[in-house]
Every structure is written in C-alpha cells, then in structure tokens.
UniProtKB/TrEMBL annotation:
Locations listed in the record: Cytoplasm
Reaction(s) catalysed (UniProt annotation): N(6)-succinyl-L-lysyl-[protein] + NAD(+) + H2O = 2''-O-succinyl-ADP-D-ribose + nicotinamide + L-lysyl-[protein]; N(6)-acetyl-L-lysyl-[protein] + NAD(+) + H2O = 2''-O-acetyl-ADP-D-ribose + nicotinamide + L-lysyl-[protein]
InterPro entries in alphabetical order: DHS-like_NAD/FAD-binding_dom, NAD-dep_sirtuin_deacylases, Sirtuin, Sirtuin_cat_small_dom_sf, Sirtuin_class_III, Ssirtuin_cat_dom
Active site (UniProt): H109
Enzyme class, first EC level, given as a word: transferase
Enzyme Commission numbers on file: 2.3.1.286
Entry keywords, A to Z: Cytoplasm, Metal-binding, NAD, Transferase, Zinc
The protein, known as: NAD-dependent protein deacylase
PANTHER family xrefs: NAD-DEPENDENT PROTEIN DEACYLASE, NAD-DEPENDENT PROTEIN DEACYLASE SIRTUIN-5, MITOCHONDRIAL-RELATED
Superkingdom in the source lineage: Bacteria
Length: 234
C-alpha cells in the first residue's frame, strides 16, 4: 500500500458498540417506545422539547459510564503515526474518538457535549442536562438546543469532507449500516475520485456492494489489525 498517502475513515455507531453504546438499527433500537427517527427531528423538538432534551440528556449522562475500546484506540494510534493526510469523520455524537486521543477528526452529526444556539448559530461546550431555553453564551438568547444534526438537517463540515474524499487514496468505513445519507454515499464519492475502498463491519451493510473489500467482524478486532497493516507498510 505504498501508494497511499491520504486516508479518510468514516465511523458509525458500530465502532462504539463494544464500549456499550447501543447502535441505532440493531435490537433495542427503540427508546421508550419511540423510533430515533421520530425523536431526532426539528419537528419533534418544536412539538415536544422536553422529550427531545431528555433523550439527549440521558445519552450524554451515559457517556460517563463508557470508555474507548480497542477500535477507537487503534484509530488514535493511526492518527499519531500516519505521516500522510488523515481525516476521521464520525457520525457518532459520543466523545470516544477524542478520549482515545484522536485529533484529526470531526463530528458530522454533532456532539452530545455541545449546545447549539438556534438564534445566532454559536456552538458551546456543554456538560450536564441542557434545560429548555438555556441562554447562549455568545448572543444571550434563551435558545440553546442539543448540538445534534437532526434528520432533515445538513451535516456539519460537508465541504471539508468532500475535499478530503476527492483526494483520498483510501476510504475506510467502520461500523455503519449505510442507511443514512450523505455519509452512506461517501464510498461512491471516494471511489469516483480513484480511492480504494474498504469496509470493516459486523454484518454486510446496505453499502457493502460499493466497497472493493469488506471484512466482516467486530471493530475491536478488525480496526487494530487494519491499523497494524497500514502502519507497517509505510
Ligand atoms: N463492530 C463493527 N460493526 C458493528 C459492531 C461492532 N462491534 N456492532 C454493530 N456493528 C455494525 C452493525 O452491523 C451496523 O451495520 O454497525 C452498524 C451500525 O449501524 P446503525 O445502527 O445504523 O448506525 P449508523 O450507521 O452509525 O447510523 C447512522 O443514523 O440515526 C442516525 O444520526 C444517527 O449517526 C447515526 C446515523
């Protein structure tokens, strides 16, 4: 793999499953009888803000009881040891990549430990329950909401992601079902621009057909093995 310089890694809920965070579309995907698709929307926030805030408050509180697993740590090792360009794009709103030590990464679907002002658009670090109508540190409006990209909203940093995909030599997807766009389309964008494509997932995903290679197994096993492979090839 000596011709590989630029890598983009996309991660999804599957990479955090072995840390104890439930995936979205597996068993137990319902929350108090609601489908996530019915809670994580701007319409749900407008109709029942208490419910939506509680959903994210509980998920944020649950972070205290989980730790990064070998897959997060392996990507942090890649981040520290890779001389070429690397961008880890996570769809996850947990902070396990950062806690493992990754720095060349972004959260395209937002973060549990952040709040977003619906008036001025400022984002601020937020830990603990987020009361409805909490005040924005930048503009003062009583308008903070969870800093999460809801269904129907535009993911963050798409220009930066598209630019990285366009020059990627290798695109690797870890633990994502390929059900939610635009992330589900990244493999095709990267391949169109000439990247090799590799999927690491517990089950064949909806996007498997688009990857040159799919390895089936747990992220905690497959990711460290792949990172060893790519770093030893340098
Ligand atoms: N190792 C690797 N893959 C795993 C593991 C594991 N230990 N456990 C589960 N998986 C795989 C599943 O087989 C599945 O294909 O991870 C995938 C998880 O899929 P989803 O639950 O659909 O999660 P994700 O693809 O991240 O969802 C995308 O949907 O609800 C929205 O915004 C939310 O970011 C999320 C987006």
């Amino acid at each position: 793999m000596q011709d590989i310089r630029n890598i983009v890694v996309l991660t999804g809920a599957g990479i955090s499953a072995e840390s104890g965070i439930a995936t979205f579309r597996g068993p137990g995907g319902l929350w108090e009888g609601h489908r996530v698709e019915d809670v994580c929307t701007p319409e749900a926030l407008a109709a029942d803000p208490v419910l939506v805030h509680r959903f994210y408050d509980l998920r944020q509180a649950a972070l205290a009881g989980v730790e990064p697993n070998p897959a997060h740590r392996a990507l942090a090792r890649l981040d520290a040891g890779w001389d070429g360009e690397l961008l880890i794009v996570t769809q996850n709103v947990d902070d396990l990549h950062e806690r493992a030590g990754a720095t060349r990464m972004l959260h395209m679907h937002g973060e549990l430990l952040s709040a977003l002002c619906t008036v001025c658009g400022a984002r601020e670090a937020w830990a603990g329950a987020l009361p409805e109508g909490a005040g924005c540190g930048a503009c003062g409006a009583a308008a903070l909401r969870p800093d999460i990209v809801f269904f129907g909203e535009m993911p963050y940093q798409m220009e930066r992601i598209e630019a990285a995909l366009a020059k990627a030599d290798l695109f690797v997807s870890v633990g994502t079902s390929g059900a939610v766009y635009p992330a589900a389309g990244f493999v095709q964008t990267a391949a169109y621009h000439g990247a090799r494509t590799l999927e690491l997932n517990l089950d064949p995903s909806m996007g498997s057909v688009f990857f040159e290679e799919t390895r089936i197994g747990a992220a905690g096993v497959l990711v460290p093995a792949w990172v060893d492979e790519i770093l030893s090839d340098v």
